[in-house]
Amino acid sequence: MKLYELATTPSARRLNIFLAEKGVDIARIQVDVRAGANLTEEFKAISANGRIPLLELDDGSYLCESVDICRYFDELYPDELALFGDSPLARARVEMWHRIVELDGLIPAFQAFRNLSGVYRDRETCVPAWGEESRARVQAFLPRLERRLAEADYLAGERYSIADIAAYVLIGFLPRLGMEVTSMPHIQRWLARVNGRPALAGC
Ligand SMILES: N[C@@H](CCC(=O)N[C@@H](CS)C(=O)NCC(=O)O)C(=O)O
Description:
This protein is an alpha+beta fold.
């Protein structure tokens, strides 16, 4: 198997943290999406969403979408971490918080960055007003995250999960939007806990 990625991007980071947690090592090929390396017909032919990360399987087929790739590795190599949850209710809670972080945090953050910085202006129309609105949505989401982490050690409850990885990537991305969470004590406590995980050391 081979992973096409650009390690500095948040979507690749999300997958790389997950793989590090699971102790999975895999050959990686860097694809400079900022320079448009994903816009070629060759790349579009192998990536259903035209983006990275993209996993090439040994049978020559491909999987894209970072969460889908995480789920594939989780089922290939089940372990006690159970990052997607270890019971029907735990799985539902992980999925719930993962979707909340993704829909209300990560996606608006990416939209804010893309539309305000114009980083992908060679391939899409940037709408600064949408960038500002998306940024405001991220800002409004942070107190919700703070409230959740006031009542639980981790987003889905007592155990670390893929929802925490998504939130961790979101928090790491905030400086690119000129935002931070230093005044939010519960997020800070959670960050210290997550930063202490050995898997995070190289990510
Ligand atoms: N939903 C996708 C998002 C992937 C994504 O947006 N990747 C970005 C890098 S963070 C990319 O390839 N951007 C290039 C482009 O938009 O042309 C996933 O989670 O894998």
